[in-house]
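Model: You mentioned two targets. I'll fold them one after the other.
Researcher: Yes, keep them separate.
Model: Target one:
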Amino acid sequence: MFYYASKFVWFFATPSNLLISLILLGLVLALTRRWRRIGLGLALVTTLATAGLGLLPISSYIMMPLEERFPPFRDDGKPVDGIILLGGAVEASESASRGRIVANESAERLLDTIALAHRYPDARILISGGGGNVFGDGTAEAPIIANFLKTVGIDPQRIIIEDRSRTTAENATFSRELIDPEKGGRWLLVTSAWHMPRAMGAFRKVGLTVLPYPVDFRTSARSETQRLFAFISDGLRRLDVATKEWAGLIGYYAAGRTTELLPAP
């Protein structure tokens, strides 16, 4: 119940959805005689805010602390026993209906995992991802990715499928059930750079030690963060992702799913 409630609340709290809702509210109020002036003011101010948040690099500054929290992985020559790929790179329902993999803007998670699988041919590959979309049909992502890895030459004997998780906390919990932490070994955790702090916090909470392998960077170097967006939708999309992740960090810390508000290396 909490899972669905949180998804429902966030749908309306998402910046882009909230801004559009406020504009519509203002227009509705503007149709009334009593609230006409307030409605017009609300619609105008919110429209200007939408344009500003979409064009100005505000979202980049919000996202950058997340992406720079964990540095890129540097190969030190030591062996890697396993690779954990968190779901979120593939549209499961569309992939199932099309009969072929349909990747999204986080496709680097999958691409880098393939590269790592070839770089460390003895490493096992754990794919963690169930049907985590409230508006989806419940199709799990992990089996779809597993089948795709087989088509690009990855030995199926190396692949471990975890297809129950719907959240990052469940990614960690269910992955731990499939990996014995007492046996040690070096496992890489592959997920988006902006998502890495919360993911690392969740895995540490369940007692599973992993090495961060951040991918899917959305921001450029610090010297380039002042660039304006060419499309309002681009800035709003980045704002949605960044604010959702910050909200997730706060929620996880409050719920005890991580021991740190902003986990660090």
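Model: Target two:
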Amino acid sequence: MKNLPLAIGLLALCVLTSQTASAGKFSHLSGNPDLRSASALVLDGSGEIIYGKDTDTVRPIASITKLMTAMVTLDAGLPLDAPITVTREDRDVVRQTGSRLDYGATLSREEMLLLALMSSENRAASALGRTYPGGLAAFVQAMNRKAEQLGMRNSRFADPAGLHAGNQSTARDLAIMVRAAGKYPLIATASTTKGMAVQPFAQRGLLNYNNTNRLLKNQNWQIGLSKTGYLNEAGRCLVMQATIEGEPVSIVLLNSFGKLTPFGDSNRLRRWLLAGR
């Protein structure tokens, strides 16, 4: 048994090496990023929590809802090249917001999904729900069923655009949704497209749309998935998947006040992570 101490030493070294390899780059941080968002959650690539703040409070999530809308649409396997025409049924009767997609505007289902994710176009999202098999009611049921399947235990969905304050979730649940949405290549591409032009009317010119996440124009950020949201009840919201110094992270920021606060919080998070790596 003279080699027992050596064996124990080698075993301890293997365990230490394994722990070091599995530990993320941002696993030993100190201090606080001093975020303004009421709820926040940052996860590493393995799903481990890097930072959390009030992660289980149920809050309205506004247009973050559209990530679930996109997943339910794609899960249905409906033809993406099929034309969808905007009707009066797609108007916003909750907030009375307008849209550049007038009644009669026709785009493919894929273009509607792109506009819903990239520029948070409410009528595009509503049209996706309305044209789902069984109609809008069936679509909302599918949204809640999908949330249950994903294990989003504290989430409820009320409409595909996120206009109802009844679309509610927690930072912890949204991290689950972001992770699931990131597995859909079209959602990742659509949500990070900086801009696009569409022609919903044959006799009119192009309509140009831009992404609602200004961080996509910031060269310091590598963003793989993105969605913003805003309602009076929800405040400013932002969810992202990003890569920081080669490390994948998921970021959820809810209930920020001030138009630029989620972007400021994102930059504060990034500086905090990089300072402690």
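Researcher: Noted. Anything on target two?
Model: Residues 1-23 have pLDDT under 50 and may be disordered.
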